[in-house]
Amino acid sequence: MPHNEMTWSSGLIPMIEPEIITQIISSIADLAFILSASGQILSVMTSPRFTTVDDFKKWEGDAFCDHLSIESVAKFEPRFETYVQTNKPVLPVELNHPDAQTETGFPMRYTFHQIGTDGSILMLGQDLRPVWDIQQQLVAAQIALERDYEAQRHNDTLFRVLMASTEEAAVFVALSSGEVSDCNPAATAMFGKHRNDLKGSSFASAFDAKDGRDLIDRLTSVSTDQSTQSMTVSTRAPKRDVVIHPTIFRVAGEQMLLCRVSLADGNHVQADALNSNLVGLFENGIDGIVFAAKDGRILSANEAFLNQSDVTNSQGLKGRAVSDFLGRGTVDMNVIFENASRNGAMRVYLTKLISEHGAERPVEISTSSLQAGNDAAFVLVIRDANRVDSSKDIRPQATDVDMVSLIELIGSQSLKDIVAQTTDVVEKMCIETAVEMTSNNRVAAAEMLGLSRQSLYVKLRKYGLLKKDA
Amino acid sequence: MSNRSDRNSEAQCPHVSGAVLQALSVLASGVTTKMNAAPDGLWPNFLTRLCDASQSADARQVQDVVDDMLREGVSDDDIAGRYIPAVARYLGDEWLADRAGFAQVSIGSARLQGLLRYLGPEWCGRDLVATADAPRCLVMVPATDQHTLGATILAGQLRSAGASVQLELDLPTKAARTIIANGDFSALMISATQRISLDSLRFLVDTIRPVKPDMPILIGGNVLDQKIDMRAAIGVDVATNDWNTALRVSTSKAMEIRTASCGSRL
Which residue among A52, B141, B196, B258 is least crowded, i.e. fewest CB within 10 A of its CB? Predict the structure, then answer.
């Protein structure tokens, strides 16, 4: 007997009169159908608490599927067919009937029961509209929430644009803690710190020790004083005199200060220090940086790359092909440039860098495609892979959960089988990656993997990668 | 001695040991994973845990799984754009097979929606302010086709890529017409399920088309599972579930408009 069928504790249920059965069905089902083995509706019965039978009388003679929504037909047909053919219990099925009046239709949950010997099937339906109503309320609440988020997002954008376009430095300070809660780009330029470093830091610490003492108390006094509206203090680094105009206000019960800060001499701090920072990064960065034209000619390279490649001066590099310094020469260069052109950038590409004296070192190259005037160019950031901390491997490490699964794996198979399968998985991963990196250029992929073209083809077929590539 | 030698070889080949760990995890996951096949590049174990947590009695569990995923280096973009849709599809399949009831699936979907907020604003490019010439997309879910997850994820993905997006959920056709007439969109993206009839969608497209005849109209969502030609059936220009394709269509339209406006100024 199937595990999901009820059993009587003592003996069998006695014979039940047909009219009693109708009463029982009416009390346990909201809607019941008798279907022929072909799925045609032979008869309908409704519970008085659900609706009157007249509403469904006209369904008689129709195919049951004609009264189902599209996705419900796909659920019903295979389940019904299985039940008719096997006569074994199947899971109850949740279906949706379209309804011209409500547009959304009404959902029901049906169970299947063989009755008699003529193949007809009784379907007992339970009204799911109460659950549906709750679900609709849930969705309505989600939609309302999302609309709030959208409105908040809109206001955030306005706030951001306003803050970014204000030349005066603006800093929000929580009165209770004295910490910066937000600031604009002019403030980051004024205090020489990144926004994330300023946020959460003590506002007073940005000023000279003597000015920083009791700074918040003094700003509060100034903000409430009718006669003075500002105070002059000195910033710590870079050192300069600034004027602070504080405004005190409350938000969500917390007292805040908006401090507008300007230079005492009336000038504005140049907010955009990006250019000088970029030059600094190029000149002093620890990773090699190479700008190359799309034909592979080196346009410029930094000091770190000169060290990596053992070239004595940058003039000696200009005009040379970047492929001269890559382990797999033009194969590497084509793979990198092709991917960077296609996707705008190529993350961490592993290869070897060949120095002027023939020494090899493993490197990771990240490449971005740039537009230099009318021409495309590439910037390659080359990191010595020997120095890369292996704990910061880009691949996710096995987690605790993985270890649990590993234990189950080890218990289920022999070591020999696990090693054989692991080898296959690693091989497949490497081949997939090589094929992807070379844009399905099998000659280049075979060369990268150190395989003959024929061997690569055999392995592609072995792992079912041929069809996918095609 | 041999231990030290082992450690040395591992230090020299961190990428190989990483690949082996991943390979072992792939094999191990076959023991426990609930899904027939995890989509490419996704951790089967995390998918399984997310599927379980989305239906668990403890609402905190989904957040715990996401915390673990972030700790293991899975990006918030991947969680929102790949893992959550995969779990949503799993829930849909469970309902189709009647292994999960309507109520369970509804609660699971609501939890996944909540995860998008739990991930924080960064994944959907909240810090980005779209430039004036960025593609402008209207992402809408038609009224009565009440769902939120797919459209919210799409809006986040487009925003991360720099597009300016207006997201409208449960939007009646008349209101859509007004928004499009008053707006300046490079594309309309309709997110729809199979619950909404093709006739309703056809009516929506037919109503909107005359307002902005040149604006591409795209459709996505599980309505595409019906495998019918949506262009012929409801009159849209593109039917896709790939947000990159959707972005490309709106970007090329935005460029076309920009070029035309430059031309008219000359």
Answer: A52
